[in-house]
Amino acid sequence: MPDDATLRELAARQGVCVRPILQHVTDTLTGTTRTVVIACGATRAKVCPSCADTARRLRIQQCREGWHLDHDPPRPEPDNQDDEPENDGQADEYEDTGRRVRSTRRRQDAPNIPRLEVSDRTTGRIFEAPDGKTYRPSMFLTLTLPSYGRVTSEGAPADPATYDYRRAALDAMHFPKLVDRFWQNLRRATGYNVQYFATVEPQRRLAPHLHAAIRGAIPRKLIRQVVAATYHQVWWPNLDEPVHTDPAAMPVWDELAHAYADPQTGALLPSWDAALDEINDDPAAMPAHVIRAGSQVDIQGVIAGTPLADRVIGYLTKYLTKSITDPLHNDHDGEAPISAACRAHIDRLADEVRWLPCSPTCANWLRHGIQPKNPRPGLEPGRCTSKAHDRDHLGLGGRRVLVSRRWTGKSLDQHRADRAAVIRAVLTEAGIDMDDHDELSATTTTPDGTPRFVWTTTHPGDLDGPSYARLIAHAINQRQRWRNQYETAKTRAGPTTPDLSATARSTAAPAV
C-alpha cells in the first residue's frame, strides 16, 4: 500500500478529506458498531485542500443564488444567519457596551451623505432599453485601505523605515467595523435595504480589502460619496506609550482583589470601565484610532447570465482558501519561497500586531497599565489567543466572508442541504441508492426514549481501529464509486441535469 504522504496527495486530487475525523457509532439495539469518517471541514487549503475547495464551492453557490434576485427573499430566522453582524451604528460608541456613547455628531473632516428612510425593499431598480427589453443590473465593488508608504511590485515597502506599520496593523484589526459602517451608510444614502455578498482578501502589500457583489444598481457618484464619508472611531484608552514593557515586570494577579496590580507598587490597575469613564469625562478626548477607506474604489455594473457575472463570482471567492500571507508567495499553492524583503515585511507587521490590543478583553492592555475587560488569572501580554494576532491573519480576526441577512434568506447549512438534495434527486431518478447516514442520526431514539446510536471519537491507529492508510484508501475508493454513479445518473437524465459533481464529492461520509 502507498505511504501516507502519497495517499494524502492522491486524496487531495480526488477531493477526499486528508485529515478526517473518525467516529465509532454503536447501535444500542443490536450492539453492532461501525466507523464513520467525517470530513474535517477546514477552510484553508494548507490544512485540507479538499474541504477548503468544498467550502469555497458552497460559497460560490450562495453568491450566485442571491445576487440577481428579482424578488425579496424571506426574512430568515435569527438562529439561521451567521454572517452579518447586527449594529445599528447610530453613534460612535465605545466597544464594550451600548450604554457608553459619545456624541453622535459626524467628524468635521468627513463629508456629509444623504440620509433617507430605509425601506424594506432588497431588490434593485428595473431599467428599460429603447427596444422594450428590461434589465435589473447589479454591481461589483472593491474597497481598499489607504496607503501606508510606497511598496515594490512584490508587496514589500520601498522604505521600511517610513512605512506606517502601526496604522496598517490597527486598520487591519478594525477593518470589519469600517465595512459594517459602510453598509449602514450606503443603506441610508440609497433608501433601500442593500444586500451584499462580500469577501475580505489581502492585497499583495498584506492590507485587507473588500470585494462585494451588490444586488441592484446604485449611482457610482453616490457610492464614492459614501466611501469618502465613511469612517470608524475607536474610543479606547491611549495606545501610544505602553507603561509596562519589561517582560520580567508585568502586572501580577492579585488573588484577593481578583484583579491585576502594579508589580512595583502593588496598586491595582484601573479597570476597563474606569479607563473608559475617564475618556468619557474628558471633553477634549480624542479617539485612539480613526480608520477610513482608501481613495481607490472600483465599481462595475454586472448583468445576470453574462460571462462577466461568472468571472466576478470566481474572483470574489478566489482567495477564500488562502491565508493572509499567501499573496506574497510566487506560486498558486503558496509554497514557493519568498524574498527576504517580503519576509521582513511579514515579520514587522506580525510583531506590531502581536503587541497591539485587539479587543477590550485582550491581554495586551496590561502593557498599557489597564486591566482588560473581564480579567482572569493567567493573562500574559503578547499571548492573546485571538486569531487576529496569528501570523497567518496579521490583525484580520474577523470573518473572511460577509453576507447580508436577506441575500438568499437561507443559512449556509440550508445551502449545503440544497446541494445534497439535487444530488440525491438525480441518483434517485436513475434508480441508484446512495449511502444514507440519516439512519445513524444521534436524534434517533429507542422505544424507551434513550438515544439509539452512540457516537464516540476515535483516531487512526487506535487499538482495533483502522490505520490512516486504510482509511484514506477506502475513502478514495468510495468517492470514485459515488462519482461514477453520479456521472451515470446525469447521462441517463439528459443534458438539463445541473453539473454539481463537486457536491457529489462532499454530500456524505464514507463508512469503514
From TrEMBL:
InterPro entries: RepSA
Spans annotated as Disordered: 67-130, 489-512
Pfam family name, one: RepSA
Domain of life of the organism encoding this protein: Bacteria
Biased composition (Basic and acidic residues): 67-78, 117-130
Biased composition (Acidic residues): 79-95
Protein name: Replication initiation protein
Lineage of the species this protein comes from: Bacteria, Bacillati, Actinomycetota, Actinomycetes, Jiangellales
